[in-house]
Each structure stands twice: as C-alpha cells, then as structure tokens.
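Allow me, if you will, to draw on your knowledge of protein folds for a short while. I have a record of one protein: its chain in single-letter code and its fold written as discrete structure tokens. Could you please explain, in whatever detail you think fit, how the structure tokens follow from the sequence? The record follows directly beneath this note:
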Amino acid sequence: MKKIIYFFILLGITFAGHSQLLSHKQGKYTKADSLRGSLRHERTNFDVLKYDLHVKVNPDEQFISGVNKITLKVLQPAQRLQLDLFENMKVDSIVFKKKPLKYTREFNAVFIDFPFPLNGNKNINIDFYYSGNPIVAKNAPWDGGFIFSKDKNGKPWVSVAVQGTGASLWYPNKDHLSDEPEEAEIHVAVPNGLMNVSNGRFTGKKELNNGYTQWSWKVENPINNYNIILNIGDYVHIHDTHKDLDLDYYVLSYNEEKARKQFEEVKPMMDCFYEKFGAYPFVEDSYKLVETPYLGMEHQSAVAYGNGFENGYLGRDLSGTGVGLKWDFITIHETAHEWFGNSITAADIADMWIHESFTSYAESVYVECRWGKEDALTYLFGLRRSIGNQSPIIGDYGVNSEGSGDMYYKGANMLNTIRSVINDDKKWWALLKDFSLTYKHQIIDTPTVIKFFEQRTKAHLSPIFDQYLKYARLPELQLKEENNKVYARWKTDMDNFDMPLRFTVDGKEILVKPTTEWKKMPFKKSLEDTKINLREYYITVN
C-alpha cells in the first residue's frame, strides 16, 4: 500500500512591502547597464578615498548645482578614468591641477582623459562641476529620484532616494557598490529658513548672503554612494543618548511631540541589535532618524523615516498575524540596515540579498528580543504570503541587476531555516554576531558569506544557500509510505541537497537526513503520526 500525505503550505502572494523594490530585468541588458554594472580597467585602476560634495538646491526651480571634490588613489598606471553622472545632468567642467580635463560621455558614464599617464600608487584630486534638473521620483522610494514637496505649512520639503537607480542621478561619483569613499563631507546650500540634514556629524552652517545658508556634515566612516543624502525642511532637532551612542532626531516642526513618543522604541531596538549583531557600526557618525516625504531608506547615520509615527508598515501588518503591529516597521527595518547593507555591503548589486535578507530577518530578531521566539516564528511564517518564488534571489553580475524582491522575506525565511538546521540557538546567535563583526565596514560577496557560515558551523550549508538564492522554487520534501515504512527524499535543483530536518513522532523530535534519493526514515510510525514544524523550515512537503 502506498499513501501520499499533503501538508498545508501557505502560498506566496506578492505585494510591495519593502524599503525599496528595484526593477528586475534579468536577461535584458543594454550597453548602459554594462557601463554601470561592470568593472572595467577605467574603474578598477583607481580607488575613491573621499567625496567632498558641495551642492546648492533651488526647490522652486527643482534645480541643483555644485561640485564634487574627489580624492582618489591611482592603483596602476592610467590615463583614462570612468566616473558616472546621469546623462540628463550637465557636466560644467572637470578640473585637475587647476586645468580643465577632456572627457567624453556614453549614457551615464563619463570617461575622463588626462594629458599624461598617471602613476600608480598615487593620490590625486579632481573637481567635478555639474548642474541640472535631476530626475524626480514618481513614487519614492520605489523609483529613484528627487522628491520636491511641501510640508503642511507650505514650506519646501526635499529629499532624494536612489538605491538601485544610482547616486549618479544627482552627483558625480564612481557609481558601483564595490568602491566606497573612506570618508565624506556634504555641504548643502538651501534657502534661508530651511535646514539640511545629511550623513555624519553636523560641522556648522554658513550664511552665503544670497538668500541661501550652507549646512555642512562630515562622515568619518566608509559609506556607499546611494547612502549619501540630503534632507531639506523646516526641521526641529531632538537629541538623546544611549550607551555610547548619540541619538539625533530631525522631524518637521509640528511633529516633535509625536516623534518624541514614537522614537522611544529606538533604545530597546539598539539594546537588541547590540546584543545580537554587535555595537552600532558608526558610533563616530552618530545615529539619526530624519523625517522624509517618502516611506524610508537606510541612509547611513541619517536613516530616512516616513512611517507617520505609527506602528506597523504605514499602520498595516505585513505578516497578517498581528505581530507586525507591535512595533514601527521603518524604524526597525531601516536601522537594521546599518549593520547589513551599510556596514556589510555587497560588492555587486546582484548580491543585494546580503543587505535585504539579513535585514528582513532582523525584523524577527527584534520581535524575539521583545516578545519571544514564538512571536518571531509567527511573524516570519506570516511574511511568506509576500513571497513569489518566481525568479532567483541573486541577479546577474556585472550589469546592475539586483535579483528578485524575494531577497527580503524568502531570504529571511532561508536564514530561519538555516537556524533550524543548526538547531542550537546559542551557536546561532554567536554565528550572527561573529558574521557582523568579522565583516564590519567591509565589501563582500555571496561566496564569502557561504564560506563563513560553513566554516563556523562545520555544516554542509552551501547547497541550502544555493537552492534558495539561485533557483526560484523551494526545496520539496517528498514522502511516501510503503509496507508500513516511511521514505523521504528532496526534490531540488541542487543535486547534492541534503538538508537535515526534525520530525516530531509521538511527541519526540527525531533528526532525519534526507537526500535526493529515497531513504527509509528511522521511525516505524505512519505518516499520519508524524509532523514537521513548517514555521521552522521554509519548504514544500508532498
């Protein structure tokens, strides 16, 4: 006799529930994609050391102008370099040693030619002057661009969000995740009566005697390009401290009371993340929440906040379980990016799961810190309704392809599955913290992550990572009963997939190790008498 038992599976329903949904266009690429996403000689022959960005913003004309004073190190002899600036923006001049340089443009790439070969292992300075009307986002932060809006009092309220789209939308830079400046200065001139808030520490303001005031900020840590930010508005400043960390909140003047109450959550959040991931990675630059005219973004040390000072995701629970209404989604999710995405950064946007999977898992980490593991598992399980399982999490390399939106909650459930495979919470938390600290302020890739997890756990995890990251479909556990014996096998794209899992038989847990071949299970009960906790494993069972 042969019986097949179907276990209940929660089907994926896709919807926009992320800090940024990027355009996924696997397999359809242009020369512009290659110029943006690849690392040719014109990019690899230098390393950016510092951006010193000076920008004047005219909100009425939606016009910006300025200069990025770039310090770079020439790594090998070169006479041509590539920087990036969107083609709708004007290159006013590029100056080296007080003389203008020749350049050519191809799509958003700017190829700069020097009058003589540059020697390797030498630092140089380039002043890149530019101006124009930057692209305005239609639905920030899901599409990249500027946001020129007004607050309830009719005062200008301006910001920008460019994750995935590229920071070269509004300032010239080496627009690739693999190269971060070691430090940055941001000087933004805004109409008098308004404030600009950028990354890092405030270093002063200066009246320019032309109706504008310049607000200056300095970042002492490495920072990726899309995190460099400006926020212009009628802000008030709220200051607090926690542990060794300065907490600074910038909100519209009429929202101060709401902010003081809502941002009380920051301290227990920091306690949780300090314990699980290590100390805040950018203490020198402080931690800021800045109210923005869009939902949110992980801008380093100046996290964009637009969640309306309410719990959930704009007042909704993405998990549909009720757990997501206990906390403010934007505060928790975007702050977790300070560890995963800002401190640890992917070398290619195709590996952006390193940013989003760990950060989305951090949502459940916070839930577990505050309300326990059962709520955390309930939350993660509920999030599965937002998973599509239609395309791989990892994108194509070298063409600015970010992979599918499943990098968020499929990635989070993958990490929870790996936690269940390890089956030792003490080891799991030590592993996550060790990962965060080992690669603090580093740029890494998928093989680095997998190698780290395998070496630390001594477990065969690479097929698990590969199945979830490189293929659309979930691992399928197939079960059958023949002659009063239970058999199991995995049906996966990975031939060597051998993920262990735990069955519950007569109230006792039994570890089993299926492979892609049928194997007899080490218990004599029928399938009706066995259970698998599908909150702990993100799989299908047939």
User: Anything to note?
Assistant: The longest helix spans residues 353-371.
